[in-house]
Amino acid sequence: MSDTPDYDGPQSASFGYRDVPASEKAGMVRQVFESVAPRYDLMNDLMSGGVHRLWKNALIDVVNPRPGEKFLDVAGGTGDIAFRIVKKQGDRADVTVCDINAAMLSVGRDRAVDRGLLQGLTWTTGDAESLPFPDRSFDGYTIAFGLRNVTDIDKALREAFRVLKPSGRFYCLEFSKVTSAPMARAYDSYSERALPFFGRIIARDAESYRYLHESIRRFPPQHELADRMKTAGFGNVAWRNMTMGVVALHSGWRL
What we know:
alpha/beta, Rossmann fold, seven-stranded mixed sheet, two-stranded antiparallel sheet, globular
């Protein structure tokens, strides 16, 4: 029996600034990431000026993975978070990467081989809203820049709660609401123009990066996401703003 009750999700979902039938969003997101997968990591460096690496390092510092703990990294196909956890865990690494997009997972596997990371990693195709794992399977769950792409955020949060062991920890690193009005205006103007521009020049796909900008703007602000985590069952919910709220790191425990 599942640890979470049945849940009927919304009939529509946001895809950038558009609302689309909920049943169609996952396929549309999959197409976006199939298109950008080969240049995804290069684009992250260009768009953030490399700052995304600092955000991810800060996430791992907070997670503080210990050897032997079982971690699930969702929507982490290219391996950026998983590699950092493996490095911290050393010889007793145990990280499962789960991503809905096979193209992203393929990039991640190749990167792992290039880095000589052949132990402690498992790669699984799966949906954040219906994870292919038993209840109470993991000590930690991470999702970085992926939650805004799911069709039903609340269902994904409930699934995260389900697969965590008692005292398991949930961590979400995601773009959020900038806390400074001048910074917010500058950041919004930059991302609205720069993401499609870099997408067209580097990834040869301006529309996918226009969607990514729009998905950032429509993601819930910090306090709302925290409330939804509590509704999903998490305790000790907190968040930490980075770069004046450009991104936020939310955390919670399955008590």
